[in-house]
Design a protein that fits this description.
Oligomer: homodimer
Helix content of chain A: 55-70%
Largest interface: A-B, 17 and 17 residues
Structural class of chain A: mainly alpha
Chain lengths: ~260, ~260
Amino acid sequence: VDRDHNFPDLKYEHFIASAVSSFPVFRMAAKKELSCGELILRAVEDSSKWHKAKNVHFGAFLLLIPLLANWDAENSAKAGELSLQYLKNTTYKDSLHVLNAFRISSARVMGSKKLDLRDDDTERFITEERVNLYKWMSMAPKDNIIAKEIINSYTISVKQSRKLIEWYKELDDLNHAIVLCYHDMLSRLIDPLIISKFGRDAALEVSKKAGEIMNLPEKQRLDKIKEFDEELIEKGINPGSVADLTISTIYLAMLDGLRF
Amino acid sequence: VDRDHNFPDLKYEHFIASAVSSFPVFRMAAKKELSCGELILRAVEDSSKWHKAKNVHFGAFLLLIPLLANWDAENSAKAGELSLQYLKNTTYKDSLHVLNAFRISSARVMGSKKLDLRDDDTERFITEERVNLYKWMSMAPKDNIIAKEIINSYTISVKQSRKLIEWYKELDDLNHAIVLCYHDMLSRLIDPLIISKFGRDAALEVSKKAGEIMNLPEKQRLDKIKEFDEELIEKGINPGSVADLTISTIYLAMLDGLRF
């Protein structure tokens, strides 16, 4: 989904409505008025009130809530470190809240041996083993790039946010800079949502193609990106986790002073 | 400006940033925590913090603040009536706040004999004659369709909001429905921002052309609208006041239950 492309059941206006409805819970996160898990659950609940799509921002909320709880970090790298610490201080109750948030949002996620989010045994395991959010994310499948990003102090988003700022200075076009940032990440990461729907080979192929495009001269690059986007859309391939990481990247760029 | 077209100094992301930054003052409006004029000024000030454009939503804020102060009206027509009453209860101090908001936003407005917003005598006149917002808007030039809309209880937006809901049901495409709504209004109204920059004949021609397009069979209409948009953009013609009325229309449609 982007400004010019909708899916039948997931549309651009759903993202707008979800983003707007997030304001109150984001403010609560900044004030730490609720625990991490409660905030994520509240974000999903509030989002669901204002649009008819199922999952719009589940992955984005997982990424953003810890960062917002540390909004006053002096820079993006520090925000990433503090967010990791914040995750380590959660409890198993936070994990249960996130499990509920997942069930409401019907997010597509990869299975894992112990903590398949679709499995009712997960709730029992979290409770009995008192698995907090940090531990739970540490147990996520290695392909879950969102969980990995969080437990690695958001290193990808921090690095990409610096590129985003540079690209914006160079191009003086925010949308173009964001698109480049997204495609750059797509060229370096294997999106788990492609793996889960089309298999690993397809996901690798997408990253390879994105990498070839990123290596083109600047004048050709944006046109090729548009062609590639159309191709992915026709095939129903939606790199949604890389899109989520683009969101945390934009947030961190703004924390570091991006204004437009 | 729309999803696919920017001006050099006014871009899509400015509208997004302005809309997002409006949340706190819109909540204050709903709770009537400040007076009407203070709210409008605050909205402009908050908007200005988060983007580098000058005027993004001045006209929209004039339209939305009274409606939001009456968010709990039972329907859109009632909201329009209550908003008019709300305007009648303002004081000259509210007019001074709006004058300040205008100066901050550098909005382009039409001159009038007595209350040209660009004229320092205006402040003196408002103070000496104790001109409240309702009276001030009543004195606006007849071509000022925003002031007229407000003192006429938002009758245009109420009517268009019903069309918007119907078009959305028919088309199942929110963006398409909004575009039709905008063009329908463009076919019926003469945009003062076109008059002020290109003259009345040009503004009449734009409305006439929009009317011809709205009369086309549905299958042809959207393509012709896109062509017409490109033509206007190439000529630097920006029907900004009709765009503002589209905003109040969308708000009222949501008040009447539009969900997507």
